[in-house]
Sequence to fold (499 residues):
Amino acid sequence: MAQKKIIIIGGGVAGLSAGIYARLNGFDSEIVEIHSLAGGLCTAWYRKQYRFDYSVQWLVGTRYGTFFNTYKETNVINDDVKILNADFHTRMVLPDGSDFLVYANIDKWQEYLLEKAPEDEKAIKKMCKDMHSCRYLNSFDLAPSLRNPLHYIKALFDSFPTLMTIVKYRKKSFYDYVSNLKFKNDWLRNSLLSLYGNTDFSAVAFLLILGWYTNKNAGYPIGGSLALAERMYKRYTDLGGKFTFKKEVKDIIVENNVAKGVVLDDGTVLEADYVISAGDGYNTIFNLLKGKYTSSKVKSSYEKWSPFCSFVQVSFGVNKKLETKYPVQLVLATGRKIGSTVLSQFYRILNYNFDNTMAPENKTCIVIRFDSPYDQWKNMDRNSEEYKQEKERIKADALKILDENYPGSSEFVEICDIATPLTTVRYTKAWKGSYEGFRPTSKNITDQLSLTLPGLDKFYMVGHWLFPGGGIPPSIQSGKWAIQMICKKEKVKFINNDK
Ligand SMILES: Cc1cc2nc3c(=O)[nH]c(=O)nc-3n(C[C@H](O)[C@H](O)[C@H](O)COP(=O)(O)OP(=O)(O)OC[C@H]3O[C@@H](n4cnc5c(N)ncnc54)[C@H](O)[C@@H]3O)c2cc1C
Fold:
């Protein structure tokens, strides 16, 4: 019997995952991707001998758990991949030049905070206790529609303290959570509140982060984003998967409410037994499917949930070893201008010296990132003089920032690369230039969108738009879920490995 064919729109990590499990389960699989590289947002690019990374700084599931198992199956992690566990989550630089450290370990952070603000012992210990209770979360290996009550009972048993804390704080913003702790020390309270600004960032998301770090289950895979994507691509093509580069899916063929294939930008029609979209959520639902298969939940999510703010990345290749104890720094600079963008709060400066595959010996990759709303960019033509001049202004301002953080280093800059929100959209079609789907807030943190759309058969959606907070782990897991669901429909046993 001929193999059934699955077409996958988009070759980011979610699409690659779906493709790998499709091949493991004997389906004919073809991934169609706009870009000339696999990986989507999980990528990097070479300039001179430098590699400028775009995505992974921390990857939940690098040591154990459901995500870890899925990484092993998809070659995200193998025995040759070195995982680095950071000592610090972030160093925040305050306007007076002093710092506020966030350790990558709850107990060390507690010790540091108690030393700085002994008067807040009770509140500090309460916050750290809440974080400790968030160390037991494991994700489901099985797609939501395939679970039975026993799966939920087991999850309750395994993750009980974490689930209780999630229930308690799920409707709280980080701002409210910190305010309710009533810290007496102004420095501590203001520093904490500055971590996520005045936005409705979920308190639960904050509490979970240091739990993962403390468990050493959120490391950084040496080689970074591109190497991760290349390993997945290798796994997929080794299994016989087909990958079509530089083609955009312009239409999804639907007959009698059943997905039958896709039409590419050159007019090619690809027929399929199943279609999986691992591309941008908004484009898939409202353009490719013309908004015909939505529910009130889907519509209200895209109307009410905010995507992560788009950002500008300035990458410098510096012909000098720049040393730092703090690879990731948040510098508070509300109101400062970089190019035409007025910072709403801070910029990030990353020193990639912790990964010696990024730059040649004795040289350094420095990356500066700052939020820059998509509305500021959306009408700009990237071939225009206006765009070129804006990039020049950004470069001049970023060089000053480089010198402020690493005095005298701008004269060693060999190469400067600027990626704007228009770059993100051009290469990935990400809605409004969001780099991780929807922001996790007190309104959506425990919510997910379904892999299926109402009324449309043989069609699945995967990737970070399904999960507020997004990120690589759930994106990869959702690719596996889609194939589990297809196997169930085909009445074949799902296989997760070929070994
Ligand atoms: C600066 C930055 C830092 C990040 N840090 C982290 C981190 O530390 N940890 C973490 O877990 N995550 C991080 N992320 C987020 C993570 O990279 C993403 O959430 C994840 O890669 C999303 O994968 P995806 O496959 O769902 O989507 P995408 O990567 O967006 O892939 C979608 C793919 O589909 C293609 N496509 C779209 N439409 C079409 C079409 N019509 N036809 C053909 N192809 C199409 C696109 O070109 C793209 O390749 C970061 C991202 C960025 C940018």
About this structure: Residues 9-15, 32-35, 40-42, 54-59, 248-249, 278-280, 283, 428-430, 435-436, 463-464, 470-473, 475 surround flavin-adenine dinucleotide (CB under 6 Å). The chain has three domains: 5-80+221-306+439-490, 105-215, 311-432.
